[in-house]
Amino acid sequence: MGFCRHRHNSTRRECEQRQKQHLRKELCPGLICSSNCDISINISNVMPLGDHQRQNAVTASCTALCLRNLGWDISEPSIQAGLEETQLPGRSQFLTQEEASVLGLNGSSTVLIDGAHTEASAKALSDVIETVKPEGPLALVVGMASDKEHLAFAEQLLSEVCELKTTVLFSEFSASPLPDIVLLTEASIAGGNSRTMPASSLKELWIAAAQDQGIDHMDIGTVSGMETPECIGNLASSSSSSGKCMLIGCQDAPFSRGLIKVASQLLESRGADGAAPGLICVTGSLHLVASVLQHLEQQ
């Protein structure tokens, strides 16, 4: 395999791109990694949602086809079946209604769990939410480790809204919905709290991100996960001088399933009569997502 030299008319990026193209042709000549594909595999039914997961499916398919070229007995139907039956717990995973009921929900909200914890994965999560196009209100339940880029993560999940404000007239633009509720919690990392980011600190960062992006919001303080209906009603009616706004609160304690129930009740209280079910997205850490799945397994 040859490598190109950097000349005056060749940038480093162009050189690296040519190297990657050359490598793909060496590994997968004439297959899905090449521009001259002689095979067609449908990835429209891949279970994990999002363009990033479809790209992962393409990469996995390419690998399988390369192995087949080396003599492995791998059929196209097997690859297709593998793609369609693959499930990634905690990655763009929608809980069933039965699973949601274990968390104390009555069917008024759908729950999405995703272990996104970086700026890039937050962008991918935004794309997933935009793909499913929830008609009802949106709540985020977020817990993170202390060594992550917390502000960049928050800004990414809110950035689509700001981009929408700068849309050129007559152009089409699709954006993830603005969260109605953001509840910060504490994710137990590897069974302990030494690497846990305090929920109160996360809340301050989310408030800063909302302020930077000009998003109308209100700090509702601390929630316990055991609020009374009257308390929920008072929190849901919180508003700013300009009307209904995004509510940001925190649970200064390890995540409990009661927090998801509070998120659902807040969404229900803020929604209009006959409104579509809300969407609750639990994200920020694979450890937090594991806590949700653990609650389901204990039932």
Automatic annotation (TrEMBL):
GO terms for molecular function: ATP binding; dihydrofolate synthase activity; metal ion binding; tetrahydrofolylpolyglutamate synthase activity. Keywords: ATP-binding, Ligase, Magnesium, Metal-binding, Nucleotide-binding. It comes from the Eukaryota. GO terms for cellular component: cytoplasm. InterPro entries: Folylpolyglutamate_synth, Mur-like_cat_sf, Mur_ligase_C_dom_sf. Coiled coil: none annotated. Transmembrane segments: none annotated. Belongs to the folylpolyglutamate synthase family. PANTHER family: DIHYDROFOLATE SYNTHETASE-RELATED, FOLYLPOLYGLUTAMATE SYNTHASE-RELATED. This is Mur ligase C-terminal domain-containing protein. The lineage of its organism: Eukaryota, Viridiplantae, Streptophyta, Embryophyta, Tracheophyta.
